[in-house]
Every structure is written in structure tokens, then in C-alpha cells.
Amino acid sequence: MRRKPWRRAAEATTATALAVAAILAGAHLVCARPVHRYHGVDVRISRSGVRAPRHHRCGNVTFRVRTGDQRGRQLQLFRPKRGVRPQRVLADLVNAVSRDPRTAAAGIHAVRGEAEALGGAYVTRRVPVEFTEAITAGWVYLLDLTAFRRHPSADAELEAVRLQGPCRYGPLRRTPTGRVLAVDTGAGPRFRPQDVDSSHGTFLVHNISTEIHEMQIQRVRPGTSDAELTRYFDALAHGPVPGPSPFVGEPSGLGAIAPGRTVLVHPRHLRRGTYALLCFVPDDGGGAPHAFLGMHRIVRLYDS
């Protein structure tokens, strides 16, 4: 994509503004010139489970997630709140992934009260994902959400990583090129993207709503509009959908994050094209996936 002169001139200001937004959000993310040495957590997720290092430094932590599964996998991180066991969170997550709206609503509401959702990644063999966020010392748990959805259980396998101090809140490896806010509106939850237009981009995602949200990045057929997605989800909610799906391939993007969290996400090797930002976390009021309530946004990614 050929950037207009005014846009090139504004890029440095935009990056600075995004850094300030992250700090004001209480995330301690410090965006400066990229650091080329990698100090993150390498995570492999496959049909045999999640594998990650047992220990890492707390602070600004980067998770680099890969899979060899041709159909892709979804990783989710969470930290139980004080006095809550991981199995208690998993038991309520069983309800949160239920097809029954009331059960799903009760489950996600309980999960929000018992644990902090720390993000995760939708990855494929061709598109690994890096995400960075500020995390204090303590244990965090990594869940293969793809396997969990197929066989929900409070005894699901978890990979535990202990983050140890002293915490390191240093410069990030990547500078954000765009921003996405997850917000509450009178019409329901919504995405508010800014400068999300690069297929090689790194996006600062900040959840300023009162509920848990994710940000899938799903390729759609050329020419697809948000109005068409609304009609598609309306039809899907009431029965079989006539005609082809607007979606193409497997999703990429960021897993669920708690209200107030800020995460820097970098999907690698996305192709240029038309994509939808999507959240399928169930609404903790009625249980419908947020995308069915209007939380979707078409973006066009260019090579830049």
C-alpha cells in the first residue's frame, strides 16, 4: 500500500500516542525502538497439548505461539484470582462454552469473577502469533482451547508457567502500527480500530469494556461488508444459513482478555486482503456470542 504523505508524517506521533495509551491503561507497556534480542516464552501447541518453558521473568512478557496442526489451534492464558484453584475456573469454563445461552452466560460471568483472562492466540502452521503484555510475578496457566471445546472438562490438561521477579518492564521488540479498542456502547459491545491496515502490522488491543473480549482476525471474501456479516449472524442465530459462508480459511488473532487489559499482538505472515475482527466470547447477560450482537468490524490489510 502506498502511504499518503500526511500519513507518513503522522506515524511517529501515532506510535507515541499508542505507547502513552498503554501506560495510561496501567499496562506498563513501554514502546520504544525495537529490541532485536528475543526474551519471550516459546509456546508450541499441537494435538498432544501445550508445551512451554516452566519459568520466565515477569514484566513485559512476549509469548511466541506456533503450531504444526494444519487446521490451526487456539491457546488461552489465564490467572486464577487469590484463593481460586485452576480447576474451579475450568469447571465454569465448561459452562461458558455450552451451546445453551443461559448456561454460557452464567459460565462466562463466573470466569470473569474468578480469573483474569490474559489473552492467547489463534495460530495456524503458516501464521504464528506473538503477543506481549505486562504480567506480575506468579503462576499463569496455558490451555489448549481447541481441545477443551471438543471435550470440556474441569480436569483438562494445563501447562503452568511461573513468572518470577524482578519484573522487567523494558522496551518492546515491536512498535504498534495500529490500535483496537473493545468498548461498550448503547447498541452492544463493539470494536473501535485505528490504522489497522497492514498485513505485517502489530496491533495494540485495549479492552475498556466491562466484559471479557477476544479479537479474532478472520479472512472474508472480497467485498464483504459489516452489514452482510450482521445479516449472516442474524440468520445463523435462527437456523441454517443459505449460501456460502463469508469466511475463508482459519482465524488468527488474539485470545480473550479481561476488562482493563492491554495486549500487543503481532500475527505473522498474514496475506493482504479483507478481514473481519470478531469476538465470539459469550455475552454474560444473555449468552449470545458477541459477534452475534454486532461485535465485528471489516478491515482491509495491505502490504506495507
Automatic annotation (TrEMBL):
It comes from Streptantibioticus rubrisoli. This is Secreted protein. It comes from the Bacteria.
